[in-house]
Amino acid sequence: MGQEGAWTADVHFDSVRVPGSALVGGAEEVGYQAAMTSLARGRVHIAALAVGSAQRLLDESVAYAAANTQGGVPIGDPQLVQAMLADQYTGVAAGRALVRDAATAYDSGTDRRVAPAAAKLFCTEMAGHVADLAVQVHGGTGYMREVPVERIYREVRLLRIYEGTSEIQRLIIGGSLVRSQKAAHR
């Protein structure tokens, strides 16, 4: 469906034993922490990729709406099309701000869990919505392989899966909020 240039495959290990000396960091907890840190950083990256993809979709939508006509009327003139463009723009702007905040929180070490998860959740869901709107603005043309919107539409769907699905991000965020509240009342 998407990521046509990135092939994946299953790898199976049977009867493999890893000695303690070969564990990442020399202990189970260290390896787990390294994996979680890598996932959190990756969530910020995926969120940024989603914003960039959504920006491209917005650019394509605005250009198409301004340059093409339907029944002699520019596609961008009807208010419903303008509303779609406004929703795309608003999502991109909000996503960009959220990515910056998450990157700052991650880099400073103040939040390497909730902020990256929130940015990844919002930005990837937003990119999916912006892609839907881009196809709507383009009409039947938006579904054609010759148009960048079609490819980006397929690509952004996968962003909701990388580095943990949207549902996993919700569990991370919600669980962290509840744990923080419980800790505050101890």
UniProtKB/TrEMBL annotation:
Highest taxon above the source species: Bacteria
Domain Acyl-CoA dehydrogenase/oxidase C-terminal: 31-175
GO molecular function terms listed in the Swiss-Prot or TrEMBL record: acyl-CoA dehydrogenase activity
Protease found in the keyword field: no
Cofactor: FAD
Family: Belongs to the acyl-CoA dehydrogenase family.
Protein name per the record: Acyl-CoA dehydrogenase/oxidase C-terminal domain-containing protein
